[in-house]
Each structure stands twice: as structure tokens, then as C-alpha cells.
From TrEMBL:
It is a single-pass membrane protein. Keywords: Hydrolase, Membrane, Metalloprotease, Protease, Transmembrane, Transmembrane helix. GO terms for cellular component: membrane. It is found in: Membrane. GO terms for biological process: proteolysis. Pfam families: Zn_peptidase. The keyword Glycoprotein does not apply. It comes from the Bacteria. It comes from Qipengyuania vulgaris. Its main location: membrane. This is Zinc metalloprotease.
Amino acid sequence: MRLNPFDTGNINVRSSSGGGVGKAGGLGCGTIVIAALGYFVFGLDPFQTAATVESVQQGTQQAGPANTDEQAICSSSAYAREACNGLDSLNSTWARAFEEQGLGDRFQQPTLDLYSGSVRTACGSGSSSMGPFYCPGDQTIYIDTSFYDQLARMSGNSGDFARYYVLAHEYGHHIQTITGVSDQIRSVQGQVGQTQGNQLQVRMELQADCYAGVWAGRNRNLIEPGDIEEGMQAASAIGDDRLTQGRVSAENFTHGTSAQRSEALRAGLRGDDSVCDEYTNLS
């Protein structure tokens, strides 16, 4: 995908390596988004880990230092530069989308934290084994870019669009946060059992996939041959059914099947974010 070089004036980027610490916010296991993917890949139990993250949130943590030299961070590697280019494009695309709907005052840019190894967030502890994730407590997308090599092995391709899809998916969770959708779903989840709660989580994840497609659809002039196929392969590779290979029942799926995730991404490619509303419409 032919994205323009990042503009440090249009992005919020930092790097917290080995324990930049935030204040716990009691946000529950909604903090884990694409994270469950990493747990299946690395052989860990995402449901046990969700409980661990929630327990971390019960305490108060002190803020620690983080590198905020955006130019240096974004220029530190090819993956970092690519992520910053993607963030810049996502910020501009979604800012325009909100303006078009008369909601410009509600749009807020997220922060991108390109950490390494482990990190403390407003949602508890995170590590590279979790894969990329979004924390609503500090409105930050956390990515250890070493994950991208794992993604390439999983999806069978090393194209940049697969990586942009992951970033755009996490950005989709930020959109859910600033529009209030995330809070609405969490409220309902607190009133139902685990199976229904998981089904609601799947809806959230599919909507985030759809939002990733919306971003790409609104930038079709920048898409190169093979990009869409790369995105579909990545979406298929991280479906719950494919990741668990029967180890987890469908009732415990939290992200959706390969077919569901691919279809959600495809739906968003029309460039109309209203089509994504159906995933979290509870009426």
C-alpha cells in the first residue's frame, strides 16, 4: 500500500520498553483485543490470562518514563516507519469520516506505543506474546513489532497490507471507544453469562475488522495489486476456528471464525462505516 510518509504533527507515538507503567483503570478483560491471537499462537490460555490482567487492574501503578521522541521512534526500523505511516493515514481518514457526519468534535487521536518485550498500561500488564492490543483506559494501541514476523508465518505472506490490517483493526477498537459502542457492549456483557458475553465480544471484533476495511476502502487509490488478498489471508489466519484447531469450543470464540473475519473486512472495503453498525446493533 502506497502510504505517504508520516507527519509527526499528525501522530501520537511513544515507546515503552520493559515496563513503562500506567494507572490501573479496572476495565476488565475488555482490554484484550487481538491479544487472544497471540496466546493461541504461543500456546497460552487467553481466558486464564484475561483473569490475570483483570487482577493486575485492582492495584494502582505509578507512571514510568517512556520515549516520546516520535521522529526517532518512527525511524528506528522499517516496521516502525510503516506503523507510523499507517497511523498518520488512519488519523486523517477517520478525522474526515467524523467531520462528514458532523461529529468532528468527538474525534480523538489514539496513541501508538511501539514497545518491546513487556509493557504496563492503564489496563494492566502486556507482553509481546499477547500480540497487538488496544487499551481503552489510555486510548493507546500497543504493538511489539516482532509480532509481524509471526503474522507472516501464520498467514503465509509478508506483505505490508497484512500488517496495516492489524493496526487498522486495533484502531477500530479506538473508534468503538470514542463513539461509546465499547461501553455499551461492556455494560451488556456484565449482565449476561460467559457464552453470551463471548458472542458480544465476537461482534466487537468483527466490527473492528469492518472498520479496518473502511479505512482501506477510503484509500483505494493507494492500494496496490495483491493488497486485498494479503488482508484476507491475514484475517483468515487469525480466525478462532483456525487458531484453536478444535481446542476451544465455538461458544468460547472471542474474535470470530476465519470466514466471519474475512467477510467483515470485505464489508468495510465499501468505504461506508455505517455497514459496520450491524455488528453491534443489539436491537
